[in-house]
Structure formats: structure tokens, C-alpha cells
């Protein structure tokens, strides 16, 4: 039996490998993606489009990942450090010049049937802005 922690660990391993298809394999078809700033995106297609955009603008690797699983396996959380490089200017944000950043972040997950049905990610946008400005 696959645990919530296993699914979340596979999701983050795929993230660090730059494997969007691997991340999508961890998600339900109707996944709800709650980003730090912006609207909720629903479905794998919207999540994949978000990943494509992020890959153009940022190169990121997560370190110090710690996954927490709620009793029963329907929810999980993780905290980690985002180690990144700002590659291409993202709309409404400072100009990209290859700046690097290191940012604490966290994610919350809901799971059903061995798939992630909800991803919520939080980080301090003001901290990121300071680091890349």
C-alpha cells in the first residue's frame, strides 16, 4: 500500500528531477492547485501549464524536505527550502538577471485513492522580492 508520505515524496522527487510528467502522475485528474499568489487552478492540464511557465522563468531545487502525514493518510504537509535561479522575467515581477535565491516554503496536500487532490503552497513573496531585486 502506498502511503501519503510516499506519494508526496515521489511528487517532490519528480519536481527536483524537472520531471513534470512524474509530478502529474501523482495528481488526481481534478487536482486543485492553490498557489501562493493567485487563483486556484483546477485539473492536471492547468497544473501542467503552470509547471511549464515556472520552468521557463525559474530553475528550482528543493532541499531539506520534511514530509508530515496525518493519521489516516488523507492529508500531508511538507516544509523545505527552495534553492532557485530566476531565469526569465515573470509578468509583474522584477527583471530576471540570473539572480539566485534561497527561500523557506511549505506545502499542504489532500489525497484520495493514492493521488494528490489538492496542493497548497506558501512562501514569503516579500522575502523573494528582496532577494532578486
Structural overview:
This protein is of the alpha+beta class. The protein has one domain (4-132): Roll (Nuclear Transport Factor 2, Chain: A). Helices cover 31% and strands 43% of the residues. It is built from four helices and six strands, in the order ααββαββββα. It has helices at 4-16, 20-25, 44-57, 125-132, and strands spanning 27-34, 40-42, 58-69, 75-86, 100-112, 115-123. Strands 2-1-6-5-4-3 form a six-stranded mixed beta sheet. A hairpin with a 5-residue loop joins β1 (27-34) and β2. The longest helix is centred in the middle third of the chain and has 14 residues, at 44-57. It is globular, with a radius of gyration of 15 Å. The termini are far apart.
Remind me, CATH topology? Nuclear Transport Factor 2, Chain: A
CATH architecture descriptor text? Roll
CA radius of gyration: 15 Å
CATH top level is Alpha Beta
What is the H-and-E element order? HHEEHEEEEH
**Helix count from the secondary structure assignment:** 4
Note the overall shape: globular
Number of domains: 1
Based on secondary structure, the structural category is alpha+beta
Largest beta-sheet details: 6 strands, mixed
Mean pLDDT: 96
Q: List unreliable stretches of 5+ residues.
A: none
Alpha-carbon distance between the two ends: 46 Å
Beta-strand percent range: 35-45%
Instruction: Write down how many β-strands occur, each being a DSSP E stretch of 2 or more residues.
Output: 6
Strand order of the largest sheet: 2-1-6-5-4-3
Approximately how much helix is present in the residues? 25-40%
Pfam family, one: SnoaL_2
Organism: Antarctobacter heliothermus
Domain SnoaL-like: 8-119
Protein name: SnoaL-like domain-containing protein
